[in-house]
Amino acid sequence: MGSITLRNVSKVFGEAKVIPSIDLDINDGEFVVFVGPSGCGKSTLLRLIAGLEDVSGGDIIIDGQNATDAAPAKRGLAMVFQSYALYPHMSVRSNIAFPLKMAGIDKAEIDRKVADAARVLNLTDYLERKPRQLSGGQRQRVAIGRAIVRQPSAFLFDEPLSNLDAALRVNMRLEISELHQQLKTTMIYVTHDQVEAMTMADKIVVLNRGNIEQVGSPLDLYRKPANLFVAGFIGSPRMNLITGAYAEAKGGKTVGIRPEHIGLSKDAGTWEGTVTVAEHLGSDTFMHVDVPGVGLLAARAGGEFGVRHGDRVYLTPDESKLHRFDDKGLAL
Amino acid sequence: MARKVSTQRKLVMSAIAWTLGIVIFFPILWTFLTSFKTEGEAVATPPSLFFFHWTTENYAEVQSRSDYFLHFMNSVTISLGSTILGLLIAIPAAWAMAFAPTKRTKDVLMWMLSTKMMPPVGALIPIYLLFRDGGLLDTRIGLVSVLTLINLPIIVWMLYTYFKEIPGEILEAARMDGASLAKEIIYVLTPMAVPGIASTLLLNVILAWNEAFWTLNLTTSNAAPLTAFIASYSSPEGLFYAKLSAASTMAIAPILILGWFSQKQLVRGLTFGAVK
């Protein structure tokens, strides 16, 4: 079991209101990703759930029990830190065994559980090594091993992949997703990387300045962003946001259109513009087009669409994919 | 970036370094040599450096007059006892200052250091009276406690600096893993800080071993450490230079040997955190 409920949770550091007030329901077995720009309070929120920080107000309910004032270890949660936070003076075996030793479990049982975890994580050959003798990916797996042996009711991940290089990050992303499939335990994952959020999450929580902007499945957020912040944050390249005469004609203060929903032609279309930058990625070409009266728009074309800086192109938005926002930035 | 250095410059630099080294070491060498002279040769002018009648009679004399072993054991008990007691108090204190600081933590650290700036003699009368009324004069327990208090600021400061280098996330991980505060300090913090704790221990053993003000003023015979043993040979009358030298050599030899074998640890400890 691992359901977590936050009720009016707030956090104040001195004068700074890092989290004004948050309500959130996390169901058992869900993979929830907290995403947002740096300083949005996502790590603080995770540390409040972990119990490493005290809440300034509100309640944290874990599996129906009010855990607001419980010590971190009493909450039945395990955490994987950004820096891995392995115990440098202990072998891999002792690192993984540490939470079991603290729980006073007998030696034979500990050995069995450590061996199981090591097998799942491909660490069997490294059990006698010290953390400093391991690669980044192996250290990350030890940190995960230390979390899984306890069979926690939920896992908390604090930007666990940001210290790894790009290739390894893709691998570990898959490994964590697979682990979630196997264990079916609640996982809360903090990241600023929207690719991790989109690919791993059952449910994404978009945070901005300590407030929840929107909660939903990755595709919900992509298709129906609730406001301008989410519209601009989810999706790469960012959604084009257009104000002025065109927006008003379409019935909103601001309208948004994603780069992939703009048709491109060299002959005819709704808007005529000049290519300022063309990024050729092979499979795709991202173009930044300066359209007089509308602004600088990003558009996506196939890899074979050959254009260069200064070329004249025509853009046609797919009007069924337009997002309309009112003067407060909320979706209409 | 190697710089080119001329041979002449190297020679001059080496000569200066050797001169300085010998000047610093000379008093210890002179004490050592004097301890093998007769009392007459010890005060002879001009003094002879190596060409005298070598004798070990001073050592025999010192040993027969006073109980070197008793004073040696007192020194060991007092320096080790005060350092270990100090560490037991300072480890939790430094933990709190490094990992749970408040607005006033820096002020507390400065205040602790400021007590080392006061001349100790300023506190002699009250402490002497406390010792007299408490029956602590000339006891090992009394000296251990006073030296613990005197060196505590240095122990806390050194440990604080080492602990600051330990990432807080590792201690948070221990907390998540179910370690109580005591277990967090015993199983995670202390083993990670072993190099720092070791150099703190060594430095404070040396400081306590050499401490002469309180040990001389608060002891007479039973609890007197080697500092008092040396002082008992310092007399305004009579010929005691050679015997004083023999006593000094016997007193400083153990700590010199300890320092020699642990110099790597000491240097590492004193420059800890200076370079990444």
From TrEMBL, chain A:
SUPFAM superfamilies associated with the record: MOP-like, P-loop containing nucleoside triphosphate hydrolases
Short name of any one Pfam family annotated for the protein: ABC_tran
Compartment(s): Cell inner membrane
Domain of life (superkingdom): Bacteria
GO MF terms held by the record: ATP binding
Signal sequence bounds: none
Keywords on record: ATP-binding, Cell inner membrane, Cell membrane, Membrane, Nucleotide-binding, Transport
Mode of membrane association: Peripheral membrane protein
SMART domains: AAA
Family membership: Belongs to the ABC transporter superfamily.
Protein name, as recorded: ABC transporter ATP-binding protein
Source organism of the structure: Rhizobium oryzicola
UniProtKB/TrEMBL annotation, chain B:
Membrane topology summary: Multi-pass membrane protein
Occurrences of domain ABC transmembrane type-1 (ranges): 72-262
Domain of life assignment: Bacteria
Record's signal peptide: none
Pfam families: BPD_transp_1
Membrane-spanning intervals of the chain: 12-33, 76-96, 108-129, 141-163, 184-209, 240-261
Protein's UniProt keywords contain Calcium: no
Keyword Cell membrane on entry: yes
Main location per the UniProt record: membrane
Keywords: Cell membrane, Membrane, Transmembrane, Transmembrane helix, Transport
Matches recorded under SUPFAM superfamilies: MetI-like
UniProt record similarity statement: Belongs to the binding-protein-dependent transport system permease family.
PANTHER family listed in its UniProt record: INNER MEMBRANE ABC TRANSPORTER PERMEASE PROTEIN YCJP, MALTOSE TRANSPORT SYSTEM PERMEASE-RELATED
Name of the protein in question: Carbohydrate ABC transporter permease
